[in-house]
Amino acid sequence: MNRWALAGVAVVTLALPPLLPERHLATFVLLLLAATVTVGVSLLMGYAGQVSLGQASFYAIGAYAAALPAVHGVPSLLGLVLAPVAAAVAAVLLGAPLLRLRGHHLAFATLAVQLILLSLLAQADWAGGAIGLQGIPRLTILGFELRDLGYAYAAWSVLAIALLIARNVVDSRPGRALRAAATSETAAAASGVAVGRHRLAVFTLSAALAGLAGGVYAFYLGYLSPGSFPVLLSIEFVVMAVVGGLGTLAGPVVGATVIILLVQLLNTLGTQPGMPDYAPSVLSYAVYALLLITCVLYLPKGLVPALRHPRKAGITR
């Protein structure tokens, strides 16, 4: 995307929040936060060749790290700063042993991490237990308490920071080393690339981005529970990254937009009179499965690469 197109997208998305009704503004905020987490997933999967099915665990760690100090009187802005730090520290501690695994072994290990975390949170009375953590104050910046519109711009800023960091990482020497390691670990190691160190670094960075988004999420909703971070959420982040296009900067944003809007549409359809109670969840599972299968079969590199190079993707003859 050239600079003028990028500036146009930025202007449109900045002008959009005041025009949205309240329920659509909530969708806008959650979409931007999901896109922020997906930027990290795309870095991890697209550039480091590692699959994580537990990214929502770092989203949860960031959310609780921001909310817990705030409910005990610590300034909420300091809690927001702690969110990515806590997620990054957790990623370093977990990533050192986990990243020795490869492929589906790593994917299942990260999934297990999330299941263990959710179980621990449900038993932790200091974190609200299964009932959840209530009374989380709103985010206050320079004396101004954010309202719904303020959270839209906070989420926009968080996504912009994530994209800026990702772009600098991709264009840097470590970014090139990561791409080399994802293509051939043996060849990269033979060329002097510290494969393990680079993978741990990008694993930590992706966790920090998820943690930062989690911090905003905690203050926006004002309530957290283990049920706020189901395993399906991690699957959702992976589907967003794959649908949008792994290894691209625009892919996570496009993927998150497509998935969130489709799920919202199906939720509206599933809550129509006469539909069974389980219709919204069943329709959500269905859209994840159909989009993932369609992309793998017909657009293996995702929407963004296919739109950039339609002939290679077989869209045009």
UniProtKB/TrEMBL annotation:
Q: Which Pfam families match?
A: BPD_transp_2 (PF02653)
The keyword Transmembrane belongs to this UniProt entry's keyword annotation: yes
Signal peptide limits: none
Topological relation to the membrane, as annotated: Multi-pass membrane protein
Query: Which keywords describe this protein according to UniProt?
Result: Cell membrane, Membrane, Transmembrane, Transmembrane helix
Principal location = membrane
The record's annotation in CDD domains points to: TM_PBP1_LivM_like
- Membrane-crossing residues? 25-44, 80-99, 106-131, 151-170, 200-220, 240-266, 278-299
> What is the protein's given name?
Branched-chain amino acid ABC transporter permease
